[in-house]
């Protein structure tokens, strides 16, 4: 329920793993190309894609999508980022920690055209056995013995799903009375006790 009297639902495709070799074999069977040639092309694309992103290019592959490198602070440098009076990090503390991908519209349309959907099972949202007040208290107690807390830590503490845990932590961050605040952004975002709580 979201206040409208209607139950919200989301749809998720059940995914089956396909290995790199299986994908190459599929291309070989349906495309008629030699497997070694397919392997060579894919290896070259992977290598040059990494090189171009490393040089600051946003690479668009028609029919596939657009690739961009993402930067973040090195994990071993993260705690230092929260020390009072620390100077800005130099380039050695920054790393490429991900690649953002935006699918080409033609790839999305082609996938939809080839997809045959059938109804599967129904799963319910994972609910926490703790009340909101109990979850906040658990988070505060965790942070009294740990430098910071990430979303997976809060998931383990509360039993919430990852998306619900992330949303709840954002609400706590916006509420000064929670005693919890965030540091960093995106993949480097962590949660710490507010200064007035640590005193």
Topology:
Elements: H1 20-31, H2 35-54, E1 59-61, E2 65-73, E3 94-103, H3 105-114, H4 132-145, H5 151-158, H6 162-174, E4 180-183, E5 190-193, H7 195-198
Antiparallel strand pairs: 1-2, 2-3, 4-5
Helix pairs in contact: 5-6
Question: What does this molecule look like?
Answer:
By secondary structure, this protein is of the alpha+beta class. The protein has 2 domains: 20-114, HU Protein, Chain A (Irregular), CATH 4.10.520; 132-198, Winged helix-like DNA-binding domain superfamily/Winged helix DNA-binding domain (Arc Repressor Mutant, subunit A). It has 7 helices and 5 strands, in the order H-H-E-E-E-H-H-H-H-E-E-H. It has a 3-stranded antiparallel beta sheet with strand order 1-2-3. It has a two-stranded antiparallel ribbon with strand order 4-5. The longest helix has 20 residues, at 35-54. The mean pLDDT is 85.
- State mean pLDDT (0 to 100 scale): 85
Number of helices: 7
Q: In CATH, what is the homologous superfamily of the largest domain?
A: IHF-like DNA-binding proteins
Query: How does the major sheet shape up?
Result: 3 strands, antiparallel
CATH topology of the largest domain: HU Protein, Chain A
Unreliable sequence segments: none
CATH class of the largest domain: Few Secondary Structures
> What is the tally of beta strands?
5
């Amino acid at each position: 329920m979201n206040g409208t009297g209607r139950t919200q639902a989301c749809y998720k495709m059940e995914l089956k793993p396909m290995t790199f070799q299986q994908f190459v074999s599929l291309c070989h069977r349906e495309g008629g190309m030699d497997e070694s040639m397919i392997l060579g092309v894919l290896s070259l694309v992977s290598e040059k894609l990494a090189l171009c992103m490393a040089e600051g290019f946003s690479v668009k592959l028609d029919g596939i999508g657009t690739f961009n490198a993402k930067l973040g602070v090195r994990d071993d440098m993260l705690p230092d980022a929260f020390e009072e009076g620390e100077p800005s990090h130099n380039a050695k503390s920054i790393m490429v920690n991900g690649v953002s991908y935006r699918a080409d519209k033609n790839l999305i349309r082609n996938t939809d055209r080839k997809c045959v959907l059938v109804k599967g099972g129904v799963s319910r949202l994972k609910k926490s056995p703790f009340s909101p007040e109990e979850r906040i208290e658990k988070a505060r107690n965790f942070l009294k013995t740990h430098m910071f807390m990430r979303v997976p830590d809060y998931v383990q503490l509360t039993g919430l799903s990852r998306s619900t845990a992330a949303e709840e932590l954002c609400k706590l961050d916006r509420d000064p009375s929670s005693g919890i605040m965030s540091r960093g952004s995106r993949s480097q975002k962590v949660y710490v006790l507010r200064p007035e709580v640590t005193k």
